[in-house]
Amino acid sequence: MQMTKQRAYWLCQIIGWSSWGLLNFAALLMQSNKVAFTDVFGAVFQLAFYIGSSHFLRHLIKKKQWFTFSSIRLIPRILVSNFLLGLLNYFSLILVSFLMGTLVVSVELRSAHILLGILGPAAMYFLWSLVYFTYHYFEEYNRSLQYQAVIRDTELNNLRAQLNPHFIFNALNSIRALVDENPKKSKSAITQLSNILRTSLQVDKQKLVLLQDEIATVEDYLSLESIRYEERLKVEWEVSKRTHKIKIPPMMIQTLVENGIKHGISKLKSGGTISVMARIEGDFLVVQIRNSGVYLDNKPMAKRGYGLNNTKKRIQLIYGDMARFSIKNESENTVLTELVLPKGY
């Protein structure tokens, strides 16, 4: 990669300055039908000087680490260095003209000619500096984005990985309670669990899944929990067909439903109801999960379980400020958990 960048740099140097040199040479041809050898030599010398001096400026920038400077410190250094290189460029050409015997003192050393001869090349060095720093900053920005993407994916993988053992542990506890009481139901529960495990094994491979697939997983989970809680658990569904093809983070709704049962319904002697609703509102998918129970907002997160914290982190990592998550007491005995996600993400 470094070798490729180095070659690209020299290719840009040669093509860029050569194009400028050809434009100057074309302008010279338009002014005079006859071009002397000294004119060609001067144009070649200036081209070589531009390439060498701009490369020296690049070396100075990297050695002095100008990329780390603030704008207040950087801009004066660029302007001064460009002016000095313009000055050096002009007097180098004067020296070459003198050595070749083509120097016209009355013309070349006039104030206006000197000023134009210095500021012209200085402007070209400034343009070169602008292109060079712009390229560098874009490269650093892209590198920063790539680094952030790697960190983001790593953290998402860690968060998704936490869901599997946590859910499997709870599911196995449910089945264990059924083995002695009702072997037939335990077999049915094992079938439900195998379906869920098949889905959970795909979690690490998929960043987003179709809502209909997520709902199928939640149905299997609730079927499994219904065997455990029997008449203590009632389930209600209100999922619009328009939402089926929208993609969401895998196991997200399942985690919230599990949280509602574990921290809500399981705490009630008479059990309760959990309802799952999904609809489209404008450009957003709205998912609402209601469960019987009471949400204690002042309760430490560690005692509430990591399901909610995990969900918040995943939403922030994937959607940033484009999504919302909230949980609150909708009534005295009903907790509302709401997800609002951009549907076209």
Mean pLDDT: 81
> Which strand order spans the largest sheet, edge to edge or round the barrel?
2-4-5-7-6
Helical element count?
Answer: 10
Q: How many angstroms separate the termini? A: 33 Å
Q: Report the radius of gyration as a whole number of Å.
A: 35 Å
How much strand content do the residues show? 5-15%
By secondary-structure content and strand pairing, the structural class works out as alpha+beta
Number of DSSP strand runs: 7
Spell out the helices and strands N to C: HHHHHHEHEEHEEHHEE
Indicate the low-confidence ranges by residue numbers.
none
Q: What is the overall silhouette?
A: rod-shaped
Give the biggest beta sheet.
5 strands, mixed
Residues in helices, as a percent range? 55-70%
